[in-house]
Amino acid sequence: MIYPSAAMYPFFNREQLLHRQRIVDFAQEHLGSRLRDFDRSGTFALEDWQRCGAQGILGSHIPEAYGGKGLDATTTVMILEALGYGCRDNGLTLALGGQTWSVQEPILIYGNEAQKQKFLPRLCSGEWIGCHGVSEPASGSDALSLQTTAVKSDGGYLLNGRKSYIGMAPLADLALVLANADPASGKWGVSAFLVEKGSAGFSQSEPRPKTGTRTNPIGDLVFEDCFVPQEHLLGGEGIGMSLFTQTISWERAFIHAGHLGAMQCLFERCVDFAKERRQFGQPIGNFQSVSNRIADMRLRLETCRLLMYKVAAMKDAGADAAMECAMANLHISEALLACATDAVRIHGARGYLEEYGVERQLRDSVGGVIYAGTSDIQRNLISSLLGL
Q1: Catalytic: which of 81, 105, 136, 251?
Q2: Which domain range does residue 114 map to?
Q3: CA separation (Å) from 341 to 108, 132, 338, 355?
Q4: Is the CA virtual torsion 99, 100, 102, 107 positive or negative?
């Protein structure tokens, strides 16, 4: 077993390493038992989600006063990475990371006391599922050019519009939605709203079939004169751009934490296979075409891990880390796709067959270069922060 090792994680103390091992053991024992069937049918593992809530995983970064554990960003990332290593369900780990950083974190930062008390305990416990409604049919990378409107009404707002390509949208109990309350002001008129499932005028589409992370349903949120009470306005009118800019950095940096653990698991699997599989009278690991791919996988894994935990340390220190967040998203997503491709090639025909699970890792990795900002957007952001 290559993972975990104190030498590989010098930034963790003994207590953190033991906690990580407990999370790995929990994930291996209790999560992903029906993954193959759920992947085929596109079914979300609700019971596993609730187990993670009961384990305190969803509330890792939320203060105890709101139902969480009050852990720092570094330890929370460690937990999500450990889950990704122990649980083969990448859709589940993506959903856990998505709610942690793109729903709970904005409520924690921008919510008033009543909003925090009402929503965070339900999200942390796993009772509720949250989603983040930003992307629209005509605005993806250009997120703040959104067309969804919020018109002032007696006691609140009426929302009209459609959000598309939203992870967990078909199942969400709570949607954090960006809408423009002052279209004449452009992106400066964008506000954030907390919309509960079952609200009049609010509907959620059926899941839309997709290539990978099939156990994490994706769909649309539709608003037709959907009334949102004033008390569900998050952070004040016109705060949407600031909220999006600040909180997206958390998602960009750490949305791949679970996939980093999956990358470690995939690497170990390739090492074992290269030692066991024999061709031409010797292990295939003796051939440079195989061993060099594995060497590249190890290099990607280590650089990804160091970059992610550097960002976590910066966040814990209160640093903005916008560039580092973009670099982490870009590097980890691209590295995961490269490693999954190499894994299929190393395993040959077995890597191409569904029964071995390697091809699923490749399918699941493709979306990583798209969500939380495409790789091209991350490169643009890095260049912009360099003054180019």
Answers
A1: 251
A2: 14-129
A3: 38, 30, 5, 17
A4: positive
Distance between CA 61 and CA 67 in Å, rounded?
10
251 annotated active-site:
yes
Torsion of CA 72, 77, 82, 88, to 10 degrees: 140
Regarding pTM above 0.90, the answer is yes
Distance, CA of 149 to CA of 129 (rounded, Å)? 24
Q: Is residue 247 part of a domain?
A: yes
Question: Is residue 163 domain-shared with residue 290, that is, in the same domain?
Answer: no
Domain-terminating residue out of 129, 147, 168? 129
Q: Tell me, yes or no, whether 160 lies in a domain.
A: yes
First vs last Cα of the chain: how many Å apart? 45
In tens digits, what is the pLDDT along the chain, a chain of 388 residues? 444 555 667 778 888 888 899 999 999 999 999 999 999 999 999 999 999 999 999 999 999 999 999 999 999 999 999 999 999 999 999 999 999 999 999 999 999 999 999 999 999 999 999 999 999 998 877 767 889 999 999 999 999 999 999 999 999 999 999 999 988 888 888 999 999 999 999 999 999 999 999 999 999 999 999 999 999 999 989 988 888 888 888 898 899 999 999 999 999 999 999 999 999 999 999 999 999 999 999 999 999 999 999 999 999 999 989 999 999 999 999 999 999 999 999 999 999 999 999 999 999 999 999 988 899 999 999 999 999 9
